[in-house]
Specification:
The protein has 746 residues and is an all-beta fold. It has no helices and 60 strands. 0% of the residues lie in helices and 49% in strands. Strands 1, 2, 3, 4, 5, 6, 7, 8, 9, 10, 11, 12 and 13 form a 13-stranded mixed β-sheet that branches. Strands 33, 34, 35, 37, 38 and 52 form a six-stranded mixed β-sheet that branches. Strands 14, 17, 19, 21 and 22 form a five-stranded mixed β-sheet that branches.
């Protein structure tokens, strides 16, 4: 027996090419007014919500009736919009599910304490959500011919039965036609399905019609189905990595309204190797308490990953108290967990409980890193040298310095050196140190004073690297500032993870009070506008807690994704409990926690929490000023949805504050005017005379744009072909640094 799942009317973001809603009611044959029930008539393409509304619902204390439909056309999904108060038989009305496969649902309800209930005419008492599984027509009705009796009880003990009710039925007309098929591994590379070829689960398909995108998700066996109106469509499988390739990029089909369309989609391996991916998340970290991390993993590769294992490196203030699988070994704060041989498309997860030391200050950020093995890179980047850059950070109390170690852990040498970007708290350094051309296993240490600031260093990965992107390290809480403190809250303002799938990082500030139902986004973004650059991937964490008075049997999280996000790039991450995921409609992510049995917080506070995490890319090259907003709805059984806060980001560039002008020699003054400028800026140096002055101009990534040498303390710099924007300059006099600052080209 399954339990009902609460859904809103738009829960599944259904494909609605058109919809018609009318009402047929069940009216009284008696002289005095008793309740009547109305079932809505609808037509639609994939998912339908049938509202059950009431008339003359005055002083009612109980009722029961059966609801029937054609199970060849409709599949019952869930109950929505439940508005009846608590009943004596339970926290909500009882729905009998044992017969839903035969197109029947049994409903009963009694008012708590037999208190009479009155609703205004037209009120929805609950709704039923159905999925179309076959095209056609069916009635959805309160069935007077069912042996289960129809009864409505008035407070004066009047009982109305099927003899007193007109049993006219509502009707449902499926106006879509099913597109279905299988997404499978084309083992013998003949681009057609052969017996025994493996279906691919949980891949997203984009279905496009007239620049409108719809989505479907493959089931565990690789099958999919979606209902479409007539017209021409392009179906494109969303390939998850470069180890796989479709026999075709896309498929063009025509739904002509006369038949069901079947389109199988073969996917072939082009390199044979495993590709392990890993994720980690926790709903929160509280000092002096145990907290739970979930580590999830998958093999997205084309062959088995033999002897796979996970290393979890905890922050120094965290310690493991227990785990759902045995700890294979421990080396300091690094814990190793064996997960065995992992087949392609196989996923799993495990949890670890950690204690946050009371010695941690409130608001400290604790970073936990997970690495999964095997982690060999078998994707071949064209023109890639084989070099693979890694960066790590360390707080050295002896030297009172922050040390970033850059190392080439690849199989080839770096062909060229590169530049770095260093951000101290929220301020970018004017000039950042360069990284040498490193040979295999060669490293370079770059140091900064331990002054209590949060230091972030990022370096562009070598050209044509299979994963590309940046490599990043961040250090918080090293040393103290002049007030004897160190800064917090800066770690998550920028992305922490590179494109390496073998590593995941969770950095979380420990907290006191918190909102139990919310949505968080990573990176957080810069400043009050949460600025991020275009093409920055986003990670969302949706947290929920049962703060009711009874166990939540089922929880649904619904996230209608912004049109500014690339739905095809969606990747499910860690979750607190087993979750069924589906992408449907125009980009509606549905997370179903069936039979979660989430206790209420009064009974078991620590077990009353849950979460789900996912990653997604932006649509390409969004323009500056674009705001990406996202919120989620959380449903606990039959209750009204809880709407989370709106997480948002603003697309921008050059939004990071850059250090203002610095003078490195005493008794010296440097003037730049006009600044900003259109064609020319003047430099004047006062307080010392130099035989040779070198001007260096950099862009905000630290790349040297132009250099010039001058014999006088007064000289001009001409724009020439420089684009509008902000630039950083340095002045070097007779080999010694004079000053640095900013100039802005209008």
């Amino acid at each position: 027996m399954n339990n009902p799942i609460t859904s809103p009317k738009n829960l599944f973001g259904r494909l609605r090419f058109f919809a018609l809603i009318t009402f047929l009611c069940f009216y009284s044959n008696l002289i005095f007014a008793q309740p009547s029930f109305c079932l809505s008539n609808e037509q639609g393409a994939t998912t339908i919500t049938v509202d059950i509304t009431v008339e003359n619902f005055n002083s009612i204390i109980g009722m029961q009736f059966p609801i029937t439909w054609d199970p060849a056309v409709l599949e019952f999904d869930s109950v929505a919009n439940y508005n009846l108060p608590t009943g004596t038989s339970g926290s909500v009305g009882n729905f009998g599910y044992n017969q839903t496969d035969n197109g029947k649902l049994l409903f009963s309800w009694n008012s708590s304490g037999l208190d009479p209930i009155t609703f205004p005419d037209g009120s929805i008492i609950f709704s039923l959500v159905f999925n179309f599984i076959g095209n056609g027509f069916t009635t959805v009705q309160i069935d007077e011919n069912d042996p289960f009796p129809i009864e409505v009880i008035h407070a004066n003990n009047t009982v109305w039965s099927s003899l007193d009710i007109d049993t006219k039925a509502g009707s449902i007309n499926g106006v879509g036609f099913p597109l279905s098929g299988n997404l499978f591994v084309d083992t013998n590379l003949n681009c057609s399905y052969d017996l025994g070829e493996q279906g691919i689960p949980q891949w997203i398909l984009k279905v496009e019609n007239n620049n409108i995108n719809y989505y479907a998700t493959t089931e565990i066996d690789g099958s999919y189905s979606i209902y479409l109106d007539t017209g021409d469509y392009v179906i494109t499988p969303q390939i998850i990595n470069n180890l796989w390739q479709g026999c075709q990029t896309s498929y063009t089909i025509t739904m002509d309204g006369t038949n069901n369309f079947v389109q199988d989609i073969p996917i072939k391996p082009i390199l044979f190797c495993p590709l392990m991916t890993v994720d980690i998340a926790t709903p929160f970290l509280r000092r002096c308490f145990e907290n739970k991390y979930t580590i999830s993993y998958c093999n997205d590769g084309t062959t088995i990953a033999n002897g796979a294992f996970v290393e979890v490196e905890l922050d120094s203030f965290l310690s493991v108290t227990s785990s759902s699988i045995p700890v294979a070994s421990q080396n300091g704060n690094i814990y190793t967990f064996n997960i065995g041989d992992i087949e392609p498309f196989q996923c799993g997860d495990f949890t670890i409980d950690v204690y946050v030391s009371c010695d941690a200050d409130l608001g400290d950020t604790h970073c936990t890193t997970v690495n999964i093995f095997p982690n060999e890179i078998c994707e071949l980047g064209v023109g890639w040298s084989g070099a693979n850059i890694e960066i790590s950070g360390n707080c050295n109390p002896t030297s009172e310095e922050i040390e970033f170690t850059v190392k080439n852990i690849g199989d080839g040498n770096m062909s060229n050196g590169t530049t770095s970007i260093v951000i101290e708290d929220a301020v970018m350094m004017l000039t950042s140190p360069s990284v040498n051309s490193l040979n295999v296993d060669e490293s370079q240490v770059i140091s900064f004073p331990a002054n209590g600031s949060t230091f972030r260093m990022e370096i562009e990965q070598v050209p044509n690297h299979p994963f590309g992107g940046k490599v990043i390290a961040v250090i918080e809480g090293c040393g103290e500032n002049t007030n004897g403190e160190f800064s917090t809250g800066f770690i998550n303002q920028f992305s922490l993870e590179d494109n390496n799938p073998f590593t995941a990082i969770d950095c979380r500030q420990n907290i006191g009070a918190y909102d139990p139902n919310d949505k968080q986004a990573f990176p957080r973004g810069y400043g009050d506008q949460n600025y991020i650059k275009a093409n920055t991937d986003l990670e969302y964490l949706i947290r929920f807690q049962n703060t009711g008075t009874d166990t939540a049997f089922n929880v649904i999280v619904l996230d209608t994704l912004s049109s500014l996000l690339n739905v095809g790039s969606f990747r499910l991450g860690a979750s607190s409990h087993p979750v069924d995921f589906e992408m449907t409609g125009n980009g509606v992510a549905i997370f179903k926690f069936n039979n979660i049995m989430l206790p209420d917080s009064n009974v078991n506070e620590s077990a009353s929490h849950g979460f789900v995490q996912f990653k997604i890319a932006q649509e390409q090259d969004l323009s500056n000023g674009t705001v990406i907003e996202n919120e989620a709805s959380i449903f606990f059984d039959f209750n009204e949805p809880i709407i989370t806060n709106t997480a948002f980001h603003t697309i921008g560039e050059n939004f990071v504050t850059v250090n203002t002008q610095k003078i490195f020699l005493s008794n010296l003054a440097v003037r730049t005017f006009p600044n900003p400028f259109k064609e020319m800026v003047n430099f004047e140096i006062e307080g010392a005379q130099f035989q040779s002055i070198q001007l260096n101009v950099y862009d905000l990534t630290g790349r040297l744009i132009r250099t010039s040498t001058h014999a006088e303390n007064k000289f001009s710099f001409f724009r020439n072909q420089l684009l509008s924007g902000m630039y950083v300059y340095t002045l070097v006099g007779d080999g010694a640094m004079i000053s640095s600052g900013k100039i802005t080209v209008q």
